[in-house]
Amino acid sequence: MFCTKCGKEIENDALFCSNCGAKQVNTYKEVFVRNGLSEQDFIANINKWFQWHPNAANIKCKFGIDSSFGMLANKYVLNQFVIEYELYENNNTMQYGLVKEESTAMMKKDTKDFIGAWQQAHPNTTIVNWQGGTHQRGHMGALALGGIGAVNRMNAYIFFKFPRQ
Description:
Number of strands: 6
Strand order of the largest sheet: 1-3-2
Strand content: 35-45%
Helix content: 10-25%
Shape: elongated
Largest sheet: 3 strands, antiparallel
């Protein structure tokens, strides 16, 4: 077999590369595509996958987010979610989850503060990755409200892990 990091040939049952020292772990990829589902059902399906695969571990993710025009502001919509993971022989001690959080406060707010507040409200979790931000009003929305409050809404997709019970 070949090292998963440097590509040098190594023994077939090697746990570490004799050349670069990298741990030899097979990684897998799963691509979730929304395909017309409501965003709520799409996220629920992703979370079911995590429940059904308790031996998936060291999960990394990428968000496929599009911006679409809402009533008064552009908004972010999750249309694809890609994970890379390892498989443990036994169940992983951590459970993973994905959630969408929103704030509709009519004021400018820092996205990192928004994520920090979520983390404080969920102290038993560790955020693995997140994506999102503040939605700006389009010209029509700003005009409809007399040009006040250029920022009106935030949303973020938060991928997190927590101890499995």
